[in-house]
Amino acid sequence: MTETSSQRKRLLLLVSPSTYRAEAFLRAARALDVEVARGIDLPEPLAEAWHVQLAADFTNPDAATEAVVAWAREHPVDAIVAVDDSATLIASRAAAALDLPHNPPEAAEAARDKGLMRALMSAGGAPCPIFRRFPLSGDPREIAQQVTYPCVVKPLRLSGSRGVIRADDFDGFVVAFERLKRILLGDGYPLAATDVLVEDFIPGKEVALEGLLTDGALHTLTIFDKPDPLDGPFFEETIYTTPSRLTEATQAAVSQCVATAARAIGLRHGPVHAEVRVNDQGPWMVEIAGRSIGGLCSTILEFGAGMSLEELILRNALRLPVPTFDRSGPAAGVMMIPIPKTGVLRRVEGVERAQATPLVTGVEISVKPHSTLLALPEGASYLGFIFARAETPAEAEQALRAAHAELRFDIRPLLTMVG
To answer: Which end of the chain is more exposed for a tag (fewer CB within 10 A), N or C?
Structure first.
């Protein structure tokens, strides 16, 4: 599926060293005959040792943006694409400076800050839970008297459901607030300058929408069902299946809700990944990100005659023709294998049996033996992925559960250091 053009397109891909997703974008670029340079989240002195064209510290967006812009002025590109959340703001700022297709930097910032996101979505008419911000330095017992229950305590910037905790009453709130406080302080967030978000818990089914924005217009690529209930106290995502089993009318309402949210925070160009709750009152926005789905989940998606999600994203970024936005192929599902407990992984047993499960197309254990595992809410990763394809999403879900039941995880307790 190579594009013919008088001049080969060039792309700058911003990635973190640990991302699962760079190879999928590189394969898509090869399919399109696009030249790719990688900007990696590394200290500049390591660029030569890692043999990368560009190194930038993504934790310092100002300096990283300057580095990306300076590099791109010497090595002109047609688009800048951020693979993960950590680089979306840098990509938007650099693309704006270089007059390339981009989201407004303010929108990229809002998509990473849950408090700002909530305020803009609420003001812009996207259905949202009632929310308030409180200082991390506040007295949790005093704050607990000001909220309604059940509620959800959230960090403003952590990802992967890390630090997100449901509280059903006064005592539960105090415990949740103090636990989130330990997580944030452990990550180096300053006590005096950090807020947390507290919002009403919205019951209902949760779905994820994968979409692509072109000049502000949202193309819904697929809606994933999440068949496991996400009711707390932590919110670990496990199974995604597509196509959605929601009615067509409900799916249209979900798409409209996400379009309203994207417009409210100012997202206009590129991929979006949105989390939405659906109940008798309709869809409610949970979050929206200016990037595509994480991990290896995109591998179950196919569009038209064999296009990957990443190829769609690159075509959109580079202003190449997009033959179709319609998902093709049978029903599919992916399980993000949850971490059952904190500890040290000794080994995983049953992988061959899991792979032999009917309708399962692959099992990928991404965590190496002897790695330290952190369960939610302190952790934010998974043990790996299980993939399935079937005639119906219900069959794909059943296959994923059967394969997961074959796996056994030997996880030993962490050793406690005695001082």
So the answer is: C
